Amino acid sequence: MSKILAFTNQKGGVGKTTSTANIGAGLARAGHRVLLVDLDPQANLTKGLGLSDAEQTVYGALLGEYPLKAYSLDKNLALVAGSPALSGFEKVKGDELDREFLLKDLLEPLRERCDFILLDCPPALGLVTINAYACAQQLYIPLEAQLYATDGLEKVLELVSRVQRRLNPSMAVGGIFFTRHDKRKVLRRDTAEQLRAQYPDLVLNTVIRESIALGEAPHLGKDIFSYAPQSAGAADYQALVAEILTR
Prior knowledge:
Elements: E1 3-7, H1 16-29, E2 34-38, H2 44-48, H3 58-62, E3 71-74, E4 77-80, H4 89-93, H5 102-107, E5 116-120, H6 127-135, E6 138-143, H7 149-166, E7 172-181, H8 186-198, E8 203-209, H9 212-216, H10 224-227, H11 232-246
Parallel strand pairs: 1-5, 1-6, 2-4, 2-5, 6-7, 7-8
Antiparallel strand pairs: 3-4
């Protein structure tokens, strides 16, 4: 059975989608069968991996219109496309019984065909995110080490605690990692050290450095390993994948 990892942060712009794409690609390159699921209404994961004309999306599957459709991207790597319509999911399904487990039920038939399922969560703690938390075994939280970075983190950890009590007691936080990191900047270095001291068991050793290539790759529909395999971004995500596998 596959392991389900959710990448989440209540704060947007922290590299969550970039991390989902590149960790998924890194796992696939290491020989694991990987399914990515785009749960963000912005659908940046879908667009950033070159899938712009998907007829079947995760939203239609959540509404029961069809089963989850996984589009093949590369050897060992497939994607369930996102949709802007996900922004209205809570309004449509908010009163339905067992609404928190709709995604879990959809993923169940696919779990024997994958080693990892990676969920790219929206930057909001609504019903879509709760669906992700209800089926995930581990959450990974990307952070920029800057002022107010802990605000989004504390909200995520608070929701995690509630979901563990009520919906998914086996879920755990797999780790926190820093993105767009520049240790030469005093504020970022100090914030990183503060968070390591505050959450010593959760903050991962690997950091993702600021990298132009990481911003360029999605515009060409590529992950960092396909676009710039010798870049700092590729080296950092390869190290992060290795660290995640040890956890």
